[in-house]
Design a protein that fits this description.
Elements: H1 3-10, E1 21-22, E2 29-30, H2 33-54, H3 59-66, H4 75-78, E3 86-87, E4 97-104, E5 111-115, E6 123-127
Antiparallel strand pairs: 1-2, 3-4, 4-5, 5-6
Zinc ion binds near residues 28, 39 and 43.
Amino acid sequence: MKNSEFIEELLPMQPKEVVAYKCPYCHDIKTTEFAAERCIEEHLLDKVINDMWDDGATLQQIDDQFGVFNGCLTEEQKTVTKDSCFVIEYLALCDKPAYRIVHIGSHWGAITVGGKGSYLGYYEHDVNMLYIKDPHPLSELFVYEFGK
Ligand SMILES: [Zn+2]
């Protein structure tokens, strides 16, 4: 096919209007109403889970109620609370317990940790559950301070 023929074939084409559904929380555009409703439900569930987490629940209690970890928590993960802190060396190259769980996603239990482990400042990052190990008490939380 020559270029001119190709262009002639495309000329009658007009843009088509489509219907989409926008999640009012994250503004994601979904192609079905069902997907948008599902997105809204996940945000509401996230809120309930994280309110429970902020009130001091353990990972086990959250899993018992919402099944976000599918019963796959290790013995030491079961007792972890918002006050537990972890050494996650690859975050800001910090080898001290500077990170705590600051958010739990309802979808597959995605974990976000946050902390100030170095001069890079406060930092939040999603981590694999494999890094949620050897919990330290809140009294051992390391917070980087300039010059110390
Ligand atoms: Zn959403």
